[in-house]
């Protein structure tokens, strides 16, 4: 996993910046009831999406929470007084205090199924009955756009997707969270080029292979043989699910 303290300063610039944040916020907002008064954005990162949620709903009190100091520090500049350091598996809030809880690009980062279950359980716990939980799902699958890059990477070892939609739905159901809506949005600026993908592969992304492994190098070398090394391939389309808490 990335060191998000070290990545915080450059994180937005390397992941689509404001256009991607705008697309994500629009999709999330479309699933959040208009009468929401308190919203928690779990794993808010740099706050680039969280700020848009707050700006779009001036009548909503928006709180951001993130585990890493570097990310939370950046988010706090965007949302002064509204960001806390917190582990999403043990949120520092009482039960049933938020009308909506969001987690954008979080569940796919968790290596263990028990951690995904814990996050969903905590989001359900702090959500009031009738409130809505909104989360991204199937992030890795969204990046498979059928390009020549994907053809090269197809045989690589993969880990099971911790944010697979059926899994998330089952974890949600265990905490009385029932599906209530879905949305999709384009990851602006997220189309992969061969050169960038080879560099990311050598950092340990997209695969179970460690950096420096001979098989990693073979995949990277094949990527470097593709045409149009700097040309981004089609952008991914991300999926969002919404769940309403019973009662």
From TrEMBL:
GO terms for molecular function: S-adenosylmethionine-dependent methyltransferase activity. One of its GO terms (biological process) is methylation. CDD domains: AdoMet_MTases. Keywords: Methyltransferase, Transferase. Residues 40-134 form the Methyltransferase type domain. It holds the Pfam family Methyltransf_11. InterPro entries: Methyltransf_11, SAM-dependent_MTases_sf. It comes from the Bacteria. This is Methyltransferase.
């Amino acid at each position: 996993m990335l060191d998000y303290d070290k990545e915080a300063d450059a994180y937005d610039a390397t992941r689509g910046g404001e256009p991607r944040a705008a697309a994500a916020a629009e999709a999330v907002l479309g699933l959040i009831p208009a009468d929401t008064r308190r919203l928690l954005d779990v794993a808010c990162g740099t706050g680039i999406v969280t700020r848009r949620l707050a700006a779009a709903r001036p009548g909503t009190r928006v709180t951001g929470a993130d585990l890493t100091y570097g990310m939370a520090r950046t988010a706090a500049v965007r949302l002064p007084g509204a960001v806390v350091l917190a582990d999403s598996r043990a949120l520092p809030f009482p039960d049933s205090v938020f009308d909506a809880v969001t987690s954008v690009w979080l569940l796919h980062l968790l290596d263990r199924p028990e951690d995904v279950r814990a996050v969903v359980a905590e989001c359900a716990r702090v959500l009031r009955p009738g409130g809505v939980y909104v989360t991204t799902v199937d992030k890795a699958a969204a990046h498979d756009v059928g390009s020549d890059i994907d053809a090269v990477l197809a045989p690589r070892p993969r880990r099971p997707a911790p944010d697979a939609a059926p899994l998330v739905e089952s974890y949600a159901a265990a905490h009385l969270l029932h599906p209530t809506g879905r949305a999709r949005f384009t990851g602006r600026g997220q189309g992969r080029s061969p050169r960038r993908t080879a560099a990311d592969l050598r950092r340990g992304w997209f695969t179970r292979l460690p950096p420096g492994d001979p098989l990693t190098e073979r995949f990277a070398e094949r990527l470097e043989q593709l045409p149009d090394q700097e040309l981004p391939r089609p952008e991914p389309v991300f999926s969002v699910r919404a769940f309403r808490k019973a009662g």
